[in-house]
Design a protein that fits this description.
Length: 509
């Protein structure tokens, strides 16, 4: 019951009352016998009161709980050294990491805890010492891996075509080699080494991604932008396309160019994932994700309806015409692709003025140009501009959350020998086996004096101004003619008191 009350207090809107009641319940808990503490008992979701305060974004309760956990090491003048208990904060050897819970929640208030002490200092320590070097090395390794895969695709085994053409539009001169013909020369053996590296990399990607999907859940793993949801979908699809290409190569099945093309596009697009490690590029990848999975997904539904309607109309119009003179709409799939190019203004209106064009082509193309080019494209630009304005206010905050998520991911994936535990063991200071983070804080007394003086001068000016207004209200008729002089007197009095106050402040500084 006491643990349930503690969880309820974390969710209370009255923060001051919740903190006092929290201390009162823990005071009774310490008086009772028993090794367990109410603060360490999780709820049904596996969250202790401390983790619940972070997930809910309750910064007041979080700071209150952190003040209870800190130990002042020493103080010398304005310098103070504090040891913060990292229990439940550090993601090292934690199944349900506090940092991962914060970055995976949808509440914006929770991400504000990343700027509080000691979470900010802990993340900065981990990222600067281990996270950034390992992440840059991983990015370089992935780029070299993609270069190897690209070279294997460029020099894939092909042979000249020996069969006859099936139609006048058939333009194929090379075909895929059989498996027995693909690995004969020395160049083929070099390509085989690159293909083995590519397949091993795809298998490693699946081995690393599948456990996280089972642990976190597919909805949260693929749906959270901060956790890299879209990029996880891209890299898993890329690995599957590599395995499909391998099967088609081993079985000598024609058409390996289809999964190979998808793998090349997805693999190189996944390079944008590593932009989150750089402050110059990280916020822009967030902007791209928001636009693609927000505005562009909604716009694609409208675009598909328009393209289907006008592509069908164009195909019907040119169905009776000679395809040699007007080849852009010679069949229905080509009509869809040509209409898509017209929609994005990639090409101009296809028309051969050496022959007579159908009258309905001009009418339909006029309506298509008005609806697609003038209306819908400008609507998409306006939607993306609105999204940019909304996301621009929090993109830096989202980027810092992405850095935290990347740090937790690297810490979970890498061996313990490459990522030692951060902080100081409490045994060095006689505080037990818990780990602490040492934070040095500087308190400037002159700064606090300046703030007190400034508030005092503002209050004095405000009182003088209020007194002047009261005098004007009481004797409005009498002072009507003397109003300029009274206002001048009030301003001179305020200016004199402000001048005297700022002189004291200047001398103090």
């Amino acid at each position: 019951v006491g643990n349930t009350v503690l969880h309820i207090l974390v969710l209370q809107p009255n923060k001051t009352f919740a903190c006092h009641m929290y201390s009162l319940i823990l005071a009774y808990d310490r008086n009772k016998e028993g090794p367990g503490s109410l603060e360490l008992i999780p709820n049904n979701e596996g969250l202790t009161p401390f983790k619940l305060a972070g997930v809910e974004g309750n910064t007041v309760m979080f700071q209150y709980l952190m003040q209870k956990r800190k130990h002042n090491l020493w103080s010398f003048g304005p310098l103070t050294t504090v040891l913060y208990d990292l229990t439940e904060i550090d993601s090292w050897a934690e199944d349900q990491s506090f940092l991962e819970l914060i970055v995976s929640t949808k509440k914006r208030e929770a991400r504000q805890i990343l700027d509080l002490t000691p979470v900010k200092e802990l993340v900065s320590l981990k990222w600067n010492m281990y996270g950034r070097p390992y992440f840059c090395f991983l990015a370089l390794f992935y780029i070299l891996y993609m270069v190897c895969f690209t070279m294997c695709c460029v020099y894939r085994p092909l042979k000249p075509r020996t069969g006859n053409k099936t139609s006048s539009r058939d333009n194929t001169i090379y075909v895929q080699k059989m498996l027995q013909e693909s690995y004969v020369t020395y160049e083929d053996e070099l390509r085989l080494v690159g293909e083995l590296i590519t397949v091993i990399g795809a298998v490693v990607i699946l081995i690393l991604e599948i456990p996280d999907i089972l642990r976190v859940g597919a909805a949260k793993y693929f749906g959270q932008t901060i956790l890299g949801g879209p990029f996880h979908i891209i890299v898993i699809t890329y690995a599957c396309m590599i395995l499909v290409t391998m099967v088609m190569r081993l079985t000598s099945t024609a058409g390996e160019v289809v999964p190979m093309s998808f793998a090349l596009v997805l693999g190189w697009c996944n390079v944008m994932y590593f932009a989150r490690g750089f402050q110059m590029l990280g916020p822009f990848t967030i902007m791209i994700q928001k636009m693609i999975f927000g505005d562009l997904m909604r716009f694609c539904w409208l675009m598909a309806v328009v393209i289907l309607g006008f592509a069908s109309a164009f195909y019907i119009i040119f169905q009776t015409e000679n395809p040699e003179n007007l080849g852009q709409f010679y069949n229905y799939p080509m009509s869809l692709f040509t209409t898509f190019e017209l929609f994005l203004t990639i090409i101009d209106g296809p028309a051969n003025y050496d022959v007579d064009l159908p009258f309905m082509y001009s009418v339909v193309y006029f309506a298509f140009a008005i609806i697609a080019t003038l209306l819908m494209l400008n609507l998409l630009i306006a939607m993306m501009g609105d999204t940019h304005w909304r996301v621009a206010h929090e993109r830096d905050e989202l980027w810092r959350a992405q850095v935290v998520a990347t740090t937790v991911m690297l810490e979970r994936k890498l061996p313990r020998c490459l990522w030692p535990r951060s902080g100081i063991c409490g045994r060095e200071y006689g505080l037990g086996d818990r780990w602490y983070l040492r934070v040095e804080d500087r308190v400037d007394p002159n700064k606090h004096k300046m703030m007190r003086y400034t508030e005092a001068f503002k209050a004095q000016d405000r009182n003088n101004y209020d007194k002047g207004l009261e005098k004007l209200d009481i004797s409005r008729d009498i002072l009507y003619k003397k109003e300029p002089a009274a206002l001048s007197l009030s301003r001179s009095t305020s200016r004199t008191s402000s001048h005297r106050g700022w002189e004291i402040l200047r001398r103090n500084t």
